Amino acid sequence: MLNYNYLFEIIKDKDRIKLGKEIDEKYLSDAIKRNKGEAEVLVFPINNEEVSLIMKFSYENNIIVTPRGAGTGLVGATIPTNGGIVLDLSLMNKILELDKENLTITVEPGILLKDLQEYVEKIELFYPPDPGEKGASIGGNISTNAGGMRAVKYGVTRNYVMALELVLANGSIMNVGEKVIKDSSGLDLKDLIIGSEGTLAIITKATLKLIPKPKKSVSILIPFNSLDKAIDSVIKIINKNSKPTAIEFIEKDVIENAENYLQLKFPDDKGEAYLLLTFDGDEDSEVISNYNKAKEVCLNNGAIDFIILNKIEDIDRTWKIRGALVTAVEAVSEQEPIDIVVPINKTAEFINYTKEVQAKYGIKITSFGHAGDGNVHLCVIKGSMGEEEWNKKSVLLLGNLYEKSKELGGLPSGEHGIGLNKRPYFLKVTDKVNVDYMKKIKSVFDDKNILNSNKAY
């Protein structure tokens, strides 16, 4: 076994190194906690110098390194598959600089999304990316190009990353990007890192774009008798130029499961499916004008009601239920969370297809997601099915879903990433030339294949 004593020279605080059996199992898994890997060492660095020295040691000794943030991932990207070192960046969680003139904030990768959002909103600024998991780290959000609910209006994490400080596989430190709006200065290496799931480099600092905080925000719940009618309304809402901040869709049975899990009551029970919309802006008149456009569309398209959530407790309950949909399913059954993305106008067709494969394999599938950007979230639920039957049928079902998404012009992941769980499906539905070039890029950044190896591609 390799001698890891040198790490104790790098990390002076011995409590920040755990060896072998000292490592808590949560650091060997992800948020699903179904699969577990193995590692010889768990290290908690506190600055880029420590990360650099750890990576130099790993590079010289051919040690696999698995980077980790808050551990909220759903696809196994933080599971160490080949032993080695788990590099947990959660202690690197400081705000380093707030630049109000350039509307940027520079942070370490371990800061949590909810803490960043709370900090900037107290000073009337706004960081728009809003994934459902607010306890995720910013480094993790960047590594998966997290999108979330506001993507329909504001875009995804990539649109707000201006610069990154990186530690490469060999321990070198590299800076990519700057605090500038335009950049036509060679290849954009920053954009290669965003969404790379820790396979190319370790993020040790990020400069993010902020915008002024909208002064007004309204949440609206719209029940429909069918999911088809709800999804059909989405494109009409967008084409009406009503400028929604978020458009979520949820089926009734998913809501009921989350209600039971949280012991909270959804504000309405009339619909078989719902759209959950938000609108924001600086003036009441702007917000009202925009949501009235959506109201006209939805009521003309079969909506049962158009419910403006005026009470803070109703708003909080609704979004808590929305945020707990995956967790609620996982609490009652093993399941596979999916985040396939398709063109917006193909959303209903794809969801209808999920009903076909559900019947074909006898496996329940629930659906919800970001209707405004075609990001369909599915829970493929094991229920009482035996292990052998589940392992056989679920693989076939998932293969069908990923093949259908490709047929419709979609992609395997909108925001969760590929990690371990989706890797076989990703490789199957992605053109070989694309995968070959991803591997070539990987070899340039990490010629020994020690960073999060055997993940994604």
TrEMBL record:
Keyword Flavoprotein tagged: yes
Cofactor: FAD
Domain of life: Bacteria
Xref: SUPFAM superfamilies: FAD-binding/transporter-associated domain-like, FAD-linked oxidases, C-terminal domain
Domain FAD-binding PCMH-type: 35-213
Entry keyword set: FAD, Flavoprotein, Oxidoreductase
Record Pfam families: FAD-oxidase_C (PF02913), FAD_binding_4 (PF01565)
GO MF annotation terms: FAD binding; oxidoreductase activity
Keyword Membrane attached: no
InterPro entries listed in its UniProt record: FAD-bd_oxidored_4_C, FAD-bd_PCMH, FAD-bd_PCMH-like_sf, FAD-bd_PCMH_sub2, FAD-linked_Oxase-like_C, FAD-linked_OxidoTrans_Type4, Oxid_FAD_bind_N, Vanillyl_alc_oxidase_C-sub2
Annotated protein name in UniProt: Glycolate oxidase
Naturally occurring in which organism (per UniProt): Clostridium acidisoli DSM 12555
